[in-house]
Amino acid sequence: MRKHLIFFLLFLAGCIFVDTSPNRCYHLWDPSQKDGCLLMVASETSNISKCGEINESSVAERCYTLLLGNGIVENYSICMKLSGAGMDECFSRLAVRTNDSSMCMKINSSYSMGNCLSGIAVTLGRPDICESIPLNISRNTCKNQIYPQLAVKNKDAAFCKLMIADNSQAQLTAADACIVSMVRELNDTTYCNQVSTEFTRQFCLTGRIDPASCDAISDPQGRQACRYIAAVYSKDPSVCASMPSGTLKDSCYLQLASDTKNPQLCSSISLESIREQCLQISQG
Asked: Between the CA of residue 132 and those of 114, 198, 276, what are the distances in Å?
């Protein structure tokens, strides 16, 4: 009789040990063992409700993060259960999936919030969303990505005049580049008469510019403007490299990376905020 009882107990223990049912955790009395078991079940079944049954908050958060990484679709409720970088990443993904900029505003990191808002603004073609970006230079870069889109969409070069730059000459250069791009997209050279400089106007009409001819321009700002136009429309990054360091040089690499979808060009950008936006745009 005693042998039969021992065999029965061993058999029962073996059954418990190999239990793979989703409800196998509820007989566990130790809280940490139960939490670990629920984490395992949630991972195996992709049942995110199991994460909500976990007692220890750090284990529960690990559970949510694990399932999000395995392809579970995020929502507001799940994101609010996370913290730190996990919460920021969750709201960023939710914002992109829903094109809802209000989800970007839930991100704690101002840097990540700016990238999130910029991505939504460019996707929707809404410069007003850029206004909420904390960093000024990132805010301006966001708008400058959208104005050329709006110029083409509305067939209105007035949007190009809204381009933002450090000074008036750089602003004219950016506006001219926007108009030339618009002419190429619409195949309509009638907009070329709104270009401010003669050499850019000629390029706008003919589609050709020799970077070597820029060296003959005596005015330094005009010379840099010429090189910028030549680089952007010849898609030659070596021309960007010939510019003095600064916003115009960074903008040159940003524009080329965006046009050619080559994120490697972003590494040449000096400002980290623009470099991150460049990677986002060129990989998008």
From this structure: 8, 37, 17
Residues 48 and 78 both lie in one domain: no
Q: What is the pLDDT of residue 245?
A: 67
Are residues 39 and 49 located together in one domain of the fold? yes
Residue 114 to residue 142: CA distance in whole angstroms: 9
Q: In the chain, how many domains are there?
A: 2
Give Cβ neighbours of residue 269 (< 8 Å, ≥ 6 apart): 250, 253, 254, 275, 278
pTM (predicted TM-score): 0.68
Burial label, 9 (beta-carbon count in 10 A; 0-12, 13-18, 19+): exposed
Angle between helices 272-283 and 136-154 (to 10 degrees): 40
Q: What is the amino acid identity at position 238?
A: S
- In degrees and rounded to multiples of 5, residue 247 shows phi and psi of -60, -40
Report the residue count for the chain.
Answer: 284
Q: How far apart are CA 49 and CA 223, in angstroms?
A: 63
> Does residue 53 fall inside a structural domain?
yes
Q: What would the two tokens of residue 182 be?
A: 């618009």
Residues 63 and 101 in one domain: no
Domain span at 123 = 73-135
Which residues have CB under 8 Å from 35's CB, separation 6+?
54, 55, 56, 59, 60
pLDDT interval class at 242 (50, 70, 90): confident
In a domain, 246, yes or no: no
Name the token pair of 38.
Answer: 């629920």
Distances (CA, A) of 249 to 147, 167, 241: 19, 14, 7
- Burial code (b: 16+ CB inside 10 Å, e: under 16) for 146-175 equals bbbbbbbeeeebebbbbbbbeeebbbbbbb
Kindly report the number of other CB atoms within 10 A of residue 140's CB atom. Answer: 19
pLDDT: which is higher, 143 or 239 = 143
